[in-house]
């Protein structure tokens, strides 16, 4: 990125944020992709003073799983990001009971980008209908119109917990270690088998430690 080019920000809701974050991270021109929680309508918040968390979003606090993309506009355009947005999720789907959490959203950071996004939704609507699908349910949020409003909109996105960041990459490492551990256990050699058993316990402990928030959200009675 040249010294004269300032990085730009785009935010998208595309269902579960794990896969979209990885997709954006691998896109040339993207400097950073962060999984987090976005807000479309403040009036839908259950509690304005409650900081967002995976647990609160799963309970239906009105926020949406989102990805914030920091990118180099001299390499990657907003239009190209929108192309990825449409390719990587089905915007016509709605998950019963999780409408807010997994909704399809574009958070433009300027009025110009909002106009581009609205036009893109119209094009996508025609494309969906042409293939017999229901129209996209994508929401285009309002763009900040001034310095104070832009600062206030910072509250509209909050990074998710650390165990969500780069989730799929970490999951692949754990699966690989677990597979190796199981292979060692089945080798029939006592030393290797003991090492494999220890590796299995370590992977399970690692997964439990990093994903405790997921377990609590899925099983609140724990």
Automatic annotation (TrEMBL):
InterPro entries: Met_Sox_Rdtase_MsrA_dom, Met_Sox_Rdtase_MsrA_sf, MsrA_MetSO_reductase
Signal peptide residue numbers: none
GO BP annotations, alphabetical order: cellular response to oxidative stress
Domain Peptide methionine sulphoxide reductase MsrA, first and last residues per copy: 10-170
GO terms for cellular component: cytoplasm
Molecular function as annotated in GO: peptide-methionine (S)-S-oxide reductase activity
Domain of life: Eukaryota
Gene3D superfamilies associated with the record: Peptide methionine sulphoxide reductase MsrA
Protein name as it appears in the record: peptide-methionine (S)-S-oxide reductase
Organism encoding this protein: Prymnesium polylepis
